[in-house]
Amino acid sequence: MANIKEHLLDTLEELVTQDLKTFQWHLTNSAEDKHIPKSRLEKADRHDTVDYIVQTYGPNGAVELILAILEKMNNQLAEELRTKVKNTKFNISKQLKPIVRRSKPLLKQVRTWPAGAISALQDCFEQTTWITFKEAATDGGTVNPEEYTALVTGYISKCIDDVTVSKTITTRPNQKPWMPAEVRMLLKTRDSAFRTGNREALRKTRAKLSHVIREAKRVHAQRIHGHFKDTGDTRRMWAGIQAITNYRKTSPSCDSDATLPDALNDFYARFEAQNNVAAEKSIPPQNDQVLCLTASDVRHTLRGVNPQKAAGPDDIPGRVLRECADQLADVLTDIFNISLNCTMVPTCFKITTIVPVPK
């Protein structure tokens, strides 16, 4: 530690009074999270300056900061200090650099709905000839409900992809909930102005950044307060609590051991070990009337779908089923009735996504 401080002190002693003032100005206007107050450096000599830098940034951070400032000043002392640090017997990167646990940013693919996307989707479905899919799934006068359903759901997903926009969002563990894109852009502009040494641009950017941060915090506070205005809306209340506590859902980790499903299957299959009767499909009586759905019933059910719920394995959002209920009611009614008549449920209707919730 003493050798590092001696190297820093020797470097500052090479600066003349005017260069030392310039160095201290850069020090108080650095883009680092920590700052040394200007009042401390007003009457500080070279020894005090070195002590303040090491106390604030640590030995390793002090070396990196002084090197960066000297390079901005186009001072040849930066190269001399770098050489001294390399020749010192202390390994700064291993002994003096604090251990920081860093988490990688997470990339998330989200689907956004531009203005007019639902209207375009409704027009697309109204102009669709759904009988074409039924004819394609008919073989020998018999409609295959499995193929019929797959064609219809695949077409709906394709239309959704055509009217929506997929974006990749980067989320970081230390990302503030109140920080919009404008603040992040101004932070980059401030850092760029500091690196180039443009004092006027740095001053204006800092002033604008301070104003934008205050406004962003005010808007975020109003948004949080809005969650608790209606005490009967528990969904909004829980969303407000999650925003206050900065709660983030973490995906439960699944066991990579492929033998677990087989072990569970063997455990539950032991109850059927003595059952030697083969499964047979029951034939309904001749006088039994098959359940038949109407388009109005299906339309009413689709309009009651909660758009806040996540989409299933078919990746058709509940928002589409609800907003396009009038356009999809007829074709879905036809699929349901064919499935009931054939006493066979399509595979895509039997697949679900199960998320375990640890207790």
From TrEMBL:
Record's superkingdom?
Eukaryota
Q: Report the Gene3D superfamilies cross-referenced here.
A: Death Domain, Fas (1.10.533.10)
Stretches assigned to the Pyrin domain: 1-91
Q: Which CDD domains match?
A: Pyrin_ASC-like (cd08321)
Q: Which residues form a coiled coil?
A: none
Do you know which InterPro entries this protein is assigned to? Answer: DAPIN, DEATH-like_dom_sf
Name of the protein:
Pyrin domain-containing protein
